[in-house]
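Chapter review: from sequence to fold.
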Amino acid sequence: MTQHRIYNFLYGLGLFLLLSLYIFNVFYKISDFPVYSWDEARHGISAYEMLQKKNFFVNTFRYSPDYWNLKPPLSFWAIMAGFKLAGFNTLGFRLLSVIFSIITVILAALYALKKYGKIASLFTVASLGTCQQFLINHSSRTGDADSLFVCLFTIATLSLLTYEKKPVWLYISGVAFSLAFLTKSWHAGNIAIIMALYIFGTRKFKRLTFFNWVNIILSMVLPILAWGIGRYQYDGLKFFQNMIAYDLLQRSSSTLEGHIGGPDYYLLILIRFYSLWLLILCVFLLILVVKYKKWIINVLKRSDILGLCLWILVPLLLFSLAQTKVRWYILPIYPPLSIVIGLIASRILNKEHLIIKVLFMLLVIYTVFFYERAIINFLQDPPKDPKQDLLYKLDRNKSFRGKDIYLEKSTAPFYWEQDIILTAEMYGDLHTKDGGYYTFIKQKGALLLLQRSVFANRVIALHHYRIIASSRWGYIISKR
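The token string follows.
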């Protein structure tokens, strides 16, 4: 076997093992984790109800148009696809997020392989695949919009960086931008800014004809326009006005929903979730700067490096300037950070002295094991939600499909939490209603969710209610 074939074999084996580890991490006990309230549950509710009503333009909450979650529908469509593929359960709910996160890792690995070689590709996967925030926090393992958004952000930026003489890559970048907008709305503005700064910063705009510019603009605008026309048919300008007033202007100029933080908020988040990889990046980048000034200068002149820097800095700076701070807003910067780590790894292992190579490898191995252990420890012990566990027992029982369910006023808290609404819909196709016990007794065929208590036991015994499902937490009952 030639040396070239040996290298190819080792690269293939290493990539297979690292991707297998990531796929294990992203799927491990994914169905055992309860639905998170707020964003994840809200997205799931909209997706479920849109699918039931067969209205793919208007996202709803409890079957009324939702003017709090002001996102276009692409992430809802992805959840719908997951429901169709794996059923109405937590796996189906999160399946497309898992798939898009795997695609993101593969795309980053392929780009690093093409631009910087096999070593860079392996270390890109190692660093991105063990990033706790990218894996766990509002992303790969949840039904939120962020995994899809990060994947589209990655496609848009890598297509931009791949463009040399074929404008088709710019068109792909434009389409990916528009789909990212249809996923997380104004967050996609980062992509448009990166595209503009890159095209003009590298002077590649000189190669573009008028026809090219028209196609770029159309690729960025037409999908959004098609959705906008479709949505306008239902409620006119109301949704768009709220998108601009609340989701763009208020979110950027004031602190909403208690999401506070100073100018260093996102740097602290990076240190919290990515500190060891950042340490490796900074220490060995400093070594390269000191030893190879000419190489660093030449590298910084390259258009692909400018693109990676813009990919990291633009979201970091823009979200740092915004008043509303949410830790998962910077998820798109992890792929480029990982690619830069891969580039540094390639240079260190190809050019440096043995001592530095050994030190580098020891730090990387320790970092991978440190984060992998933290990930497994987190995934090993999923939290329990007793109300969700009770609703799981309905498991799409056909005799209760489409029924109304009420919440007893003695049940704490006395309001429908978003995760409970979604669980009731996914596992029972139930319609959550307000009004409590006294409304329940007036409604034919309705169900009641109530917590175990002396009152609950007395009511069930006195009126001979039928217990549909029970747990240590409480009951789901119906009238006989």
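Two observations follow directly from the output. Residues 17-380 form one domain. Strands lie at 60-61, 64-65, 404-407, 431-433, 447-451, 466-470, 474-478.
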